[in-house]
Write a structure and sequence with these properties.
Blueprint (H helix, E strand, L loop, with lengths): L2 E5 L3 H13 L3 E5 L2 H10 L4 E5 L7 H10 L8 E5 L4 H9 L4 E4 L4 H16 L7 E3 L2 E4 L4 E4 L2 E3 L3 H12 L4 E2 L1 H9 L8 H14 L8 E4 L3 E4 L4
Parallel strand pairs: 1-2, 1-3, 3-4, 4-5
Antiparallel strand pairs: 6-7, 7-8, 8-9, 10-12, 11-12
Helix pairs in contact: 1-5, 6-7, 6-8
Amino acid sequence: MQKILLVEDEKDIGEMVGFALEKAGFSFRLVADAEQALLEIAADLPDLVLLDWMLPGMSGIDLARRLRKEELTSALPIILLTARGEENDRVRGLESGADDYVTKPFSPRELIARIQAVLRRSTAQGGEDALEFDGLSLDPVSHRVSMSGEPVDLAPTEFRLLYFFMSHPERVYSREQLLDHVWGRGVFVEERTVDVHIRRLRKALGKQDYDRYIQTVRSAGYRFSARH
């Protein structure tokens, strides 16, 4: 049974989401703030974190950033729950390290669908062969990435995005095609989300100048290439 950590300080929402999780076959733990969440994660690593944006003390955004920086939780799937529906807020949430977001009010059915989609993406590998590209290495079995021998921490979505790019070099893919191949058909994700994750992947690879291989092709999409 997959374990969900729900970080939500509104009791009614916590109870509603908890009921939906149990009905869908998940086990869950409910905590009300970031401090409790960190203690729970240290005690028993969950399979996914449902994280409210507005929390007392440390915000959900800051907690997501902290989880992404820690080795233990760098690949932990995170879904942000937020009442902020503006595009800039959604982008900010994704840039904090969240793999997806759900805007309040939301239906339990939509939330469960998003949880299942993120969990599928975080566990699916698409193959077992390690890939290497000019010193950039990716092992789908151990879920490790390195640049010139130095390890790189990537969130699940960025890992799958890089795996897809390295598996299909020199081809241009539109945002819609990347959503189909990396996120999966029928997911509740906007095309703008692709740009956010591309930006996060470039930032991680940019520490050793490997971001130059992920190229923007104007009016077409993105390409992974060593040529310019």
